[in-house]
Amino acid sequence: MILFAFYSILIRADFILLDEIDIIEGAMTFHIRIKIVTLLMACLCTNAMAVNFKTHKVTENIYVLFGQGGNIAIHLGEDGIYIVDDQFAKLSKQIKKQISALKPGFPEFVINTHFHGDHTGGNEVFARSGSHVIAHDNVHKRLLAKHGSESHYLPKISFSHDLALHFNNELAQVKHFSHAHTDGDAVVTFTRANVVHMGDLYFNLGGLPFIDVDHGGSVNGLLKALRAISLSIDDETVVIPGHGQISNKNQLLQYIALIEKARFLILQAMKSAKTEEQMVQLDPLSTLAITYANWLPKERVTRLFYRSLAQ
């Protein structure tokens, strides 16, 4: 019973995904028991260590907060505060302190770039403080399915294609790009400041991106979005990725070229690899001189690219 209860907590806190559930005839399998014990130990270790938050000033009004999860953009001005993404729920108190150190008060708006928990985990806490959450319609649908209709995780404002936010003497254009990283991605462009927050369309970590094929993401959709964004910015644009350090147009173009090369390698291998397992055995991405994160190893990237391009 304790393991079941802790499993429910992990799902709500976004430590584990709903599609990882493996329950048979009301009993938890040995695999899941081991996984939960491992996660419990990891959570205890994580809670014992303070997150090292770092704030980077982009302009007089825009800051980026690096912590644990997606990068947070903070916009300050005469009208108040608003942020882009809010990381995990467990960090909300600390994130509030980081924001208050820049300007007292709470964010009037929280814009979600997509539905993943490391970008929306703080929604409930901020909403209870008075913030209005903004996100794409598909983000609302996915958070509704996960948290229920009465939850404060849900966006109060949702949009289908784009939205304009006139606040702090800045025009923030929030634009949806379909079937890219997920089916609910939004990119936020601070037009006057010439700054763009790309969410997880851009992983600036030196490797290939996570494409959430199970939730509407696709290789071709991601490339289409990235190319469109690259054409809309200039050499002076400050690019905020979903993960990694602040970037620019030139680095974004290099990222696009890497994804295009990986796409080409997978498509070439698909001429002989007729199944996902055959693709893994061929290992077409081995020619790329890049590193992979522990949570996103080469095999997983290969499978996701194959599944997307085989559709």
- Give, in order, the helices and strands: HEEHEEEEHEHHEHEEEEEEHEEHHH
Shape: globular
Radius of gyration, CA atoms, in whole angstroms: 20 Å
Main sheet characteristics: 7 strands, mixed
Oligomer: single chain
- How far the N terminus sits from the C terminus, by CA atoms, comes to 41 Å
* Unreliable segments of 5+ consecutive residues: 3-42, 44-48
Q: What is the mean pLDDT?
A: 89
Spatial strand sequence of the major β-sheet = 3-4-5-6-7-8-9
Measured as a percent range, the helix fraction is 25-40%
Q: What is the count of DSSP helices, taking H or I runs of 4+ residues? A: 10
Strand residue content: 15-25%
Number of strands: 16
Structural class: alpha/beta
Account of the protein in words:
The protein is an alpha/beta fold and 311 residues long. Helix content is 37%, strand content 21%. The protein contains ten helices and 16 strands. The chain has helices at residues 2-12, 30-48, 92-102, 117-120, 123-128, 137-147, 219-232, 249-269, 276-282, 298-309; strands spanning 23-24, 27-28, 54-57, 62-66, 72-77, 80-84, 109-111, 132-136, 157-159, 162-167, 170-177, 185-190, 195-197, 203-204, 238-240, 243-244. The strands form four sheets. The protein has a seven-stranded mixed beta sheet with strand order 3-4-5-6-7-8-9. A five-stranded mixed beta sheet has the order 10-11-12-13-15. α3 links the parallel β6 and β7 (109-111). α1 packs across α2 and α7 packs antiparallel against α8 (249-269). Residues 3-42 and 44-48 have low confidence and may be disordered.
